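Second opinion, please. Please look over this fold, written as tokens:

===
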Amino acid sequence: MTERGKLPALILAGLALRLMIAPLGGHPGDVATLARWAAAIHDHGLLNVYVTSDANYPPSGVALIGAAGWIYGWLAPGAEFPPEGALWLLAVKLPAILADGGIMLIIAHLARGRRGAGWLAASVAFNPALVYLSAWWGQLESVYALAALASVIAAMKGRPFRAGLWLGAGMMVKLQAAVVWPVVVLAAVSFPPDPRLRHRRRGHSEGAGGNEAIAGMLHAMPLLAAGTAIPLALALIPYAATGQAGLVARRLIALVEGPGWPTVNALNTWYLLTGGAGNWAYNVPLAHPDTAPLLAGIPARTAGAAALALWTAGVLWAGWRARREASGAAWLLTGALLALGVFLWPTQAHERYAFGAVVLLAGAVAVSLPLQRQAGDDMPGSGFTGPSGTKVVWQSAALYAMITGAHTLNLLWAAPFSPRLAWFAGGRIAGSLIALAMLGGALWGWAVLYRWERRNAP
């Protein structure tokens, strides 16, 4: 099979696998919660979902649940609500499965004409974290991750308005999409608006400095802001017009507004620091609130926020300095590290918060793959500047594999698909080892980005 035919075949095979898994089961708590929201939309209408249910997703995310309910009603005419059974499992997972298809298409497009594109496409099509969360669990992470990936790519290609559209759309599905906002801004302003200042390769800039940076900011920021505002306005105005703006805002922050567990099945720094005792437990009193004094009277919540701020600043500094690296791989690695920061450092993080990092790292691998040898060339083409292409590829690929593996294990640890995994699920030794892998992967990723920054430093 030719390369042109191999990539579509891999995408179709990945989608087929997900559709086969979808009706077989799901996260019992999340699937039931989404069914309640679908029933509220079915009975009272989309604009009344926040009034008649405990829905706490942004409006577009809730609308996708409503669409899943409509599909369920179409597949099972006359069925009662709340929906249940295999058809509901299939319907509620369709948005995430289709988003997985979009992620596969973007990665295939980024890797087109590069050596190893087929292997990378296969790693995304059959990525265990993507398959498990979209096809079995039944959550919308792939939808916002698709938007975040597309936003970063649009920004680093000098399309700030499109980047804003994707960013705003993702935020209205799940607020976690906003984690890439800083890197989208930096990538957008680093792309010189004057074509004479751009690198000869499309989608890659030599970086802006001085007047060029100011010109990039003046050009990009209004377009980025306008693009972001459009999906936010379309999603929020109907609720604001019906007097529900305050209610929607309160729902979106309800889970983290009050005291909570240091971690909610996220095998992260707080899991390690508390030896697992700070992890959420079902129907168990809150024994270790994140608002209680921790070190020198500082609550865990405050310490986590400070750690996240420091991590974010360090990542963005290194990402900005390394922005000429590997045809944009530095921007995608920066976005992945920001997503890992939200997973590792603040309290009340959930196990799914690292998902966006997996998708962004796949993008980093795609743009760092070497170009195919061209006819008549003495040397194969390369998408790199800075360090050797081979080293960049292996660094990106190793990070992608490491975070994929650790995140998949975290998902299985939090919600195993079979009782046979009971020996593994929730175990403190296993949890600590996975947490160490996640923390180690993130720190190594920052070290890689820092080395790229050092090589590009003037």
